[in-house]
Amino acid sequence: MQLVGWENSYSPNKAIDSRLEASESGLYYQSAHPMMTLDNIQSIMPEDFLEQYPDWNSLLTYQVGSKVKHGGICWLAQEENTGVEPPASDFNGDYNDDYGGEVWRPYNILTDFLTRLTNNGIATTVQTFLQMKGLQQETKNLLERRMFFDGAGRIANTAQNRGRLVGIEIEPVRALGVTAKLERVGLQMVGRTGVVKLYLFHSSRVEPLQVIECNYTRANGGFQWFDLKDVFMPYVSDDTGAGGAYYLLYDQNELPDGMQAVNFAKDWSREPCGTCNQGSISDWRAITKYLLLSPFCTPAPSTFAQFPELPDIGTLVYTNTQNYGINAEVTIGCDLTDFIIRQRGIFATALQRQVAAIALRTMALNPDVRVNRNQSNASVAELLYEIDGNTQSSRERGLGYDLRKAYEALSLDTQGIDRVCLKCNNHGVKYTTA
């Protein structure tokens, strides 16, 4: 369902697809300004907009919903068909229904143009909102490509393979929108080379979220990094719910024969010594502000290789001074996608006015140099006045002023919702001379 809808034409011949009429908020784009009519919107549609649709081909099979151009207009397939030609127009502009009338129906391409205009408005509204929050220092990128630890372990300090599941528990900070992204993982092993399977679990799911196969090629104990793609660990998501912990682990039974992990002795349970070589106190403080890291081990089920499942959390033994040869590079930021989707109602007014502002400015600037009766209804100066108002007077305001007020209200509505990603920033108290 759409947040803001489009009012349909009174003329059946000009009707747009009924799906655009849906309005979750009860607002319609035409209500933002009197110039926001379907005829005026159609006047700014590029003249070659029809060319994006393929020509009808008698040899092709078309599925329901396929769009083709034929006879100078666009047709929408009502059922699967092959070789059924869209109806032909007779002398008065009607379409002969004797052949193809039930299979094809005329499609108003203004529907697709309105969809594109709406999507543009949605993207602009969301980006403007995020930029406002960033400029107001209410949200930001929290941590950029930071490793769990610097350096490598002593090659002699190996972890014996005892048939266990070993890894690191990663618990994101409990704050709306905080999302950790694993940029890459690193392994330090000795003895053998080969594929090491890493599993990423979440406490809310039995099956793994990701299975990462790392082809380790350094048998001399050197660290090897493996780049990852789109491995996210959000605090809140539709797949994992809210809260919980992530588990990055491997099964020691699956390691190539003779391969052992090299441990890096760093105690994650307490702040490291600021003068020691192992570990950086600044890195530890930066990471643990947003992630709680806890290395662990637990007995591995004999069926884990065939049916990998999250072990019983109650059986985990936390080993804070062991890392089992695993390191990772992580970026932590604020992803407000879920918040925007769930709280989309408060964006309705800003979205309505943003789409109207884009449409009116396009009418004024006329990038496709279209000349028609709709554009002759108002001059460029008049259209810009409707958008920007009188720039010499604060009393005569246009759609742009209403749009700014909508964004200000949106910013106020979302201020202080979360202590990390949508925090309250009143910029302090400013003192000035009288």
Describe what this molecule looks like in 3D.
This protein is an alpha+beta fold. It folds into 3 domains: 1-8 and 20-43 and 110-138 and 338-434, no CATH class; 54-108, Seminal Fluid Protein  PDC-109 (Domain B), CATH 2.10.10.20; 143-335. The protein has helices at 38-43, 110-135, 281-288, 337-342, 348-365, 380-388, 399-413; strands at 61-62, 67-70, 73-77, 81-82, 104-107, 143-147, 158-159, 164-172, 178-190, 194-202, 210-216, 220-234, 236-237, 241-242, 246-251, 260-262, 291-299, 317-318, 326-334. A hairpin with a 3-residue loop joins strand 13 (236-237) and strand 14. Strands 6, 7, 9, 12, 16 and 19 form a 6-stranded antiparallel β-sheet that branches. It starts with 37 loop residues before the first helix and ends in a 21-residue tail after the last helix. Helix content is 20%, strand content 25%. Helix 2 crosses helix 5 and helix 5 (348-365) packs antiparallel against helix 7 (399-413). The longest helix is centred in the N-terminal third of the chain and has 26 residues, at 110-135.
Secondary-structure map:
Elements: H1 38-43, E1 61-62, E2 67-70, E3 73-77, E4 81-82, E5 104-107, H2 110-135, E6 143-147, E7 158-159, E8 164-172, E9 178-190, E10 194-202, E11 210-216, E12 220-234, E13 236-237, E14 241-242, E15 246-251, E16 260-262, H3 281-288, E17 291-299, E18 317-318, E19 326-334, H4 337-342, H5 348-365, H6 380-388, H7 399-413
Antiparallel strand pairs: 1-4, 2-3, 3-5, 6-19, 7-16, 8-15, 8-17, 9-12, 9-16, 9-19, 10-11, 10-15, 13-14, 17-18
